[in-house]
Each structure stands twice: as structure tokens, then as C-alpha cells.
Amino acid sequence: MKLLLLLFVSINVVFASQDWNAFKEKYHKVYKNSKEENYRKQIFLKNLKVIEEHNKKYTQGLSTYTIGVNKFADLTHEEIYSSSKSSTRREVTTVRSSPTPKFIPRDDVPESIDWRDYGVVTPISNQELCMSCWAFAVVATLEAHVGIYEGRNVSLSQQNLVDCVDPTFTCSQYLDIHALDNTYQYIVDNGGIDLRDSYPVEYYTVGSCRFKSETVGATIKAYGNITEGDEEELKAVVGTIGPVTVTITTDFSWDLYREGVYYNGDCMNTDEIFNHAVVVIGYGSEDGEDYWLVKNSWGTYFGQDGYIKMARNRDNNCGIASIARYPLI
Ligand SMILES: *[C@@H]1O[C@H](CO)[C@@H](O)[C@H](O)[C@H]1NC(C)=O
Ligand SMILES: *[C@@H]1O[C@H](CO)[C@@H](O)[C@H](O)[C@H]1NC(C)=O
């Protein structure tokens, strides 16, 4: 019995080492020294256990999505989102958006839509470890609207926003609840946003503002608000106008999402709400679960080639319709 147990334990250790080596190879992981590697390995093995436990729940029908090893599996959730010290805190729930003044057609809202089918969704970007998700999300949204309303395929400059919207922004800063408003307002007031080719991304850094009006890539007249928490309005706008930038609350299970419709009953039970900004590029239903189709900016290693399906019509899960904004070209 003891021998069997020993055998079982050592087989597990061997498997874990194989998993670790396969992970390092697949994602080209290189560590400073063996101490660092050992530390990363412990996090990885912990995550591996969490993944196994979660996916067991999925096979028992207790969860609607699976998670799995991806590029981020040797990081903690806190590391992916930098230090949690300056995070957006709970009190932000008091923020109310004004009722949207403009006309939103609610007839003819399609039952499902995926703006990728219209050839207007630009490739997935990678923000690396700069907390500039808001800049990447607004750029991805605006690029799609330029495709829809102007028939152009542009690459716009995230760095323009990182450098110019808020002079006090740093890459380790948590998402500010006004970030989307400030960013869209900046693009309105500034007379547009630069092309990425003339204002390229400088990973991990914030520089001085170097916007040049000669190389402007897109302009907007104004931006629109979704009434806080109104998923029907979000559906109407995504279905009839175009993609929408949203802020959400995430945890490690979001970071390691693999497939299915992501629903997390615990995601608002945290101090750090609205820690990420992403783009809703569509919606639909799958196996009886309504979902939002969401574009992330962590490269194609994340989720399903960079995308995640998040629960829709389940009480505004993870705050997806809480702070939602879109450009008006
Ligand atoms: C959207 O709502 C925010 C938060 O209430 C507000 O500051 C902003 O002015 C609104 N913008 C528009 C275009 O309605
Ligand atoms: C737009 O251009 C990029 C870069 O050339 C290309 O990869 C992409 O497929 C084009 N189409 C869309 C919809 O992004």
C-alpha cells in the first residue's frame, strides 16, 4: 500500500515536471536563475491544480467554462495586473452614467452578431505588462468603427493615448474608472488619434506626448454611454452600431480561460473591481448560455485566439455593462 502510494506520488512528480518542461518550451520561457525558475514552477504547479479542480467542476456540470494552461500560467493574478495597491476600489459603484440622450434603434437588433464576420475587427494586440488595457481597448473599438463607417482598415496608436491622455499615468497603475471617458474625450478634443506606424508602441514605458496632426489616423465627433448595467442597451448598441469598450472585473480564472461561457458568481466580491478594459465585439448564445464575445489585448495566447465568451443576461456578470462607451464617428 505504502509502496503504491509512493509510486503514485513519484509518478505525479514526474508528470508535473513534464508539464512544467512542456510549458517552458511552448512559451519560450527563460528565467534568470534556478531560484527564479523554482519560484515560477511553484506558481505554475499551483495553477495546474486549480485548473484541474475547476475543470472537474465543469465535467460535473457545475461550471459553464473550462480553464487551462496558457502563457500566463507561471504568474499570479496580482502580477498580471501589477501591484494591487492603487487599484480602483469598491466605492466606484456609486458612479452613474447619464441616460443616453441619442437615438438607439431597438427594432431590428439581431439575435446574435460577430463583427469579425464583417471584416472590421483588426488583429489582436498585446499590451505586454503595461496596465494600458484602456488604451488598447479604445483603439481596438475605434479601429472597428472606422472599418464599419469609413471602410478603412487602420492601425491606430495606443502609445498616443498612453502618453497623452493623462500625464500622471504609469504602466503599473490600475485602471481608473474615468479612463474610458477621459480617453474618448481626449480623442474628441485632440482632433483625432495618430496612426500606429507614425507613433509606435513602446512597451512598458510612458513618454512625453508626441501626437502629430499630420498623421492622424481617425477622428470622432463624440462618444456614447451605455446606461450603467443595462445589458439590453449594450446588446442594441453592439448589434446595430458596433463594438463597445467595457471595463470588467477579473480574477485568475479569467486569466486562464479556455472555452465555454465564462461566468463567475464571485467576481464582484472583491476590493478590486473594474481592473480590466476590453471590447465587446459581438454576442450570441451557445448551449443555452447567452454570451458576450469579448476581445482582449494579451496576444493570441489568451483564451480562444485572444477572445473570451463572457456570460450575458446573468445580472451584469463581472460588471460588463457597468462602464461601457463607444465612439461616434
Ligand atoms: C458618460 O458618463 C460619464 C459618467 O457619468 C460622464 O462623465 C460622461 O460625461 C458621459 N459622457 C457622455 C458622452 O454622455
Ligand atoms: C487589416 O490590416 C492588417 C495589417 O495589415 C491585417 O492583418 C488584417 O487582416 C486587415 N484586416 C482587418 C479586418 O484587420
Automatic annotation (TrEMBL):
- What residues does the Peptidase C1A papain C-terminal domain cover? 109-328
Pinpoint the Cathepsin propeptide inhibitor domain residues: 20-80
Q: Does the keyword Hydrolase apply?
A: yes
- Give a GO molecular function annotation for the protein: cysteine-type peptidase activity
The record, for Gene3D superfamilies, names: 1.10.287.2250, Cysteine proteinases
- What keywords tag this UniProt record? Hydrolase, Protease, Signal, Thiol protease
In Pfam terms, one family for this protein is Peptidase_C1
State if Hydrolase is listed as a keyword. Answer: yes
Give the CDD domains listed for this entry: Peptidase_C1A (cd02248)
Region forming the signal peptide:
1-16
Gene Ontology BP, a term: proteolysis
Which superkingdom? Eukaryota
Which InterPro entries is this protein grouped with? Papain-like_cys_pep_sf, Pept_asp_AS, Peptidase_C1A, Peptidase_C1A_C, Peptidase_C1A_papain-like, Prot_inhib_I29
Family listed: Belongs to the peptidase C1 family.
Name of the protein this chain belongs to: C1 family cathepsin L7
